[in-house]
């Protein structure tokens, strides 16, 4: 591991919306787990962000945060090496969000692609709220309060990181002398997200109800695979198929060994194997990555207090860093908490 002086700081987060699925794993978590080897990592359970769309019913907020943490620990995020914390326990994020909201032009927010998209796509909830518009400003505070160098996210979040860079620039321009910027401009690290189909062949997503959860036990994984969509051209067992046009083929490409992949490719194209057999192999591959996760999860499931303690300790650590940054922010804005007589008063004295 590089020495602490050379280590770059990483921050990322997830909205706490409950149990995670394989799409969250290949799209983010797997990458985060690897980043822990080289960088100083902060991972945020974004429970305030969950409220931006689910504000009316908060009965599951806490439970959802805990579920996310359990899945993180299961996937291999290591609280000894990384700071795992919960957004609402570091209230400094809210203070910075407020100050950023003063300098963020409305037009910047209205132009963020996810803003209009989500308002149109999410039906049954009124998303014309102040908080929802400010979603990316809150995310900017999450990132900048730790002065993160890198933000590993999926493509869908990159506009938010771009906005974060613009907010950092504007803050530095208004309040900092040249060369004494408070905020660095963080870089997006795009997670190379392979196409991960859900059981119906569309992108795996909670809102489509086509997910395989990190907590699904083996029989459930096998059952979900059995009914998974295949190459539509392969109707009878004797029809040859094309794994490049088959969602199960996509799963093999991500999770199976080169040997299995070769067997699938040859067998499918020559109708030498049946889809049931092929799906069985895909299930084997999934089970072999989910098993160790579910093993690691057990300890915390049996004793959720342990997991909650991790979040509390992580949040205390995060608060220290956040507080130090807020000290600099107040100083830069001329609003430090220390008493200093204004110049006019000094002159009179
Ligand atoms: N908006 C992110 C998502 O929906 C979650 C998130 C909140 C986040 N705060 C963050 C991601 C800070 C990166 C950095 O996935
Ligand atoms: Fe898909 Fe496998 Fe059937 Fe080919 S054999 S169509 S890859 S499930």
- Give helix % range: 40-55%
Bound molecules: tryptophan, iron/sulfur cluster
Q: What gap, in angstroms, lies between the N and C termini?
A: 56 Å
Strand line-up of the largest beta sheet: 1-2-3
Shape type: elongated
Number of domains: 2
Number of helices: 15
Please tally the β strands and state the result.
Answer: 5
Tell me the CATH topology of the largest domain. Answer: Rossmann fold
What value does the Rg take, in angstroms?
Answer: 24 Å
Proportion of beta-strand residues: 5-15%
Please, what is the CATH homologous superfamily of the largest domain? HUPs
Mean pLDDT: 93
The CATH C-level class name of the largest domain: Alpha Beta
Largest sheet: 3 strands, parallel
Describe this structure in words.
α3 packs across α13, α4 packs across α8 and α8 packs across α9. This protein folds into 2 domains: 229 residues, 3-Layer(aba) Sandwich (Rossmann fold), CATH 3.40.50.620; 83 residues, Tyrosyl-Transfer RNA Synthetase. The chain is elongated. Helices cover 54% and strands 7% of the residues. The longest helix is centred in the last third of the chain and has 29 residues. The strands form 2 sheets. Strands 1-2-3 form a 3-stranded parallel beta sheet. It has a two-stranded parallel sheet with strand order 4-5. By secondary structure, it is mainly alpha-helical.
